[in-house]
Structure prediction request, 114 residues.
Amino acid sequence: MHELSLIASLFEILEAQKAEKGFTKITAIKLRCGVFSGVVPECLEAAFEVYKKDTFASEAKLILEVVPVKFRCRRCQQIETAYDLPFFCPVCQSKDVEILDGTELTLVSFEAEI
Ligand SMILES: [Zn+2]
Prediction:
């Protein structure tokens, strides 16, 4: 399950932060999830609920910010966003586009208590 390994990586980052900053528990985690990242938000939430048990993040809330794909038309340089395929330029109808954003899952911020 793809999402479970993503959550495992997330916890590695949080563990490192915990060691560095010395907090005892995490109360909220905010992630930015591109619609083209291949991550299914429901699966990610489910994986998080399973993984967080008996950890310092057991009471943490997961906040997912779903972001659209952002792309630039290679023909006319128009920059657009979209939530669904296919991506094409609304100005010149070209499908020759460069994806700029919306393909990643990133940790935005988290709240912790000492
Ligand atoms: Zn265009």
In short: Helices lie at 2-21, 41-51. The pocket of zinc ion is lined by residues 73, 75-76, 78, 89, 91-92, 94 (CB under 6 Å).
